[in-house]
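Re: Re: token formats

Sure, here are both.
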Amino acid sequence: MGFAIAKRLVQSGCTVYTNLDNRSPAAHQCALDAGMITLPIETFLSKSNFISNIVLPGEENVFAQKIRSILGTHFGSALPLRAFVDCNTVNPEAVKRIGGVCSGTPSMQGS
């Protein structure tokens, strides 16, 4: 699903960055086919205004924690404002866990 969304965004004129650490050669090819630009995670985060979370079920909280940790480590108190969009279907308890990861940051919630 993530590659299809990325392809549509690229076709609409957006630049779409991704980080594919520890992903298969097939995932790298899908990203290339979609027009995505693969970057190291720190560069990806420094260049991105919007971060969409489209991961395998059960990995959404791990991804949110990873992003929060890297942003805090590399940007410290000058934590840049980023829109974090969770595109996964998650239950209310998972939403609370992800929200806890982002506590202390500006937020806007939707349904």
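Second one below.
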Amino acid sequence: MGCKQDFAVKITKNEVVAAMLPMQEHWLPPSNLDLLLPPLDFGVFFIYKNAPAEAKPVLKNALAEALVLYYAFAGEIMKNNAGEPELLCNNRGVDFIEAFADVELRDLNVYNPDESIEGRLVPLKKHGVLAVQITELKCRALVVACTVDHRVADAYSANMFLVAWAEIAQSKPLSQVPSFRRSLLYPRRPGSYCSSSIDRLYVPISTLKAPCTNDNQSIISRIYYVEAKQLCHLQSLASTNNRCKRSKLEAFSAFLWKVVAEDTPNNKTCKMGIVVDGRDKLCENDKRKDNPLATYFGNVLSIPYGEKRSDEIREMPLNWVANAVHDILESAVTKDHFLGLIDWVEVHRPEQMLARVYISEGVKEEVGSAVVVSSGQRFPVEKVDFGWGTPALGSYHFPWGGNTGYVMPMPSPLGNGDWLVYMHLFKSHIDLFETKASHVFRPLTCDYLKI
């Protein structure tokens, strides 16, 4: 069956779900790492082949219970006296939308989320911190989708919530209880950081000049799958010998960098950013048995990046580019880096800061492409089972705008070692992946997902 490009989605119910137990209204201040995020939402969705008739009330009741522990998602962001965003935990609740889509699951174009997901199955968040949409398809398949305010939670935090929501729906004991201990990320007194290192990665917005834009290009989203054997092959090419074996993420990012450089003129630069989670890094050498940040709810991210001339990236072998990716990661996978970043933000508060990889800086003739890779290998798709089986498909959805591309590799729901890859890139970059790298990146289909 072919994909149905145009289908109607009818909202059948729209209500607000609050935590099932009353709570004392209070303010939850942002950590310094939260303050590095601009106002930005990200989405996530799961598709289930067969859901029972009682699925929607099960989801709604479990959500109300989950919000007791994950109360931050039931709050609202307000500006404090310093002009910084602060979370009012007032149990305002979550917009909970029920809908019906006039399409069969096998006709859903999962390869092109711009057509099938954006604005249809993933909700537009209008209020609060979290919005949820439950959409029934013609064949009784169900799509569970969320939109999250990134200033409150990163993907790690969202993953904890999603697993807890599913566990509650099945009356299972919770595998994790979230922690909101902002003291874990307090700045040091006195602070200490390497100014040249942090200043190269982040910048106060007030110091920025007008960015160079690429007005002639449109950015689009696509989802591909990469077979496990291709990942192993890339890893082999990226590793010079057994003593210098690069990870699959490093090899994948290096290959991505080379393809994007193919579409970047010789006289322009090409940036590659890698999102790094600091939860493990901040607890290096900690003598406590359990990492106190393992259940921390909030943002614990840094985005180091590298910048090379496009002709250099194109001409060098994959192992050389993979070494460059490794160097990018080495600069930020330390406890000192994250402690220094926290201290750096403290010095610049209350000004809004931004990661430089997002910004098209410099002489217009030299500014080229920029892509950020965020590993979704911790995406717990197999654990988001509300009682009617694991998802046939789960993916993040992050069409964040701007001129910087975004790529997230995630585990395939087939559990066979393949990756699903969400891409949000310039159309010319996507076209290049589908011509010169089509042996690696294959459009996601319902046939691949066995639905």
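Residues 55-69 form the longest helix (15 residues). The chain has eleven helices and 20 strands.
- S.
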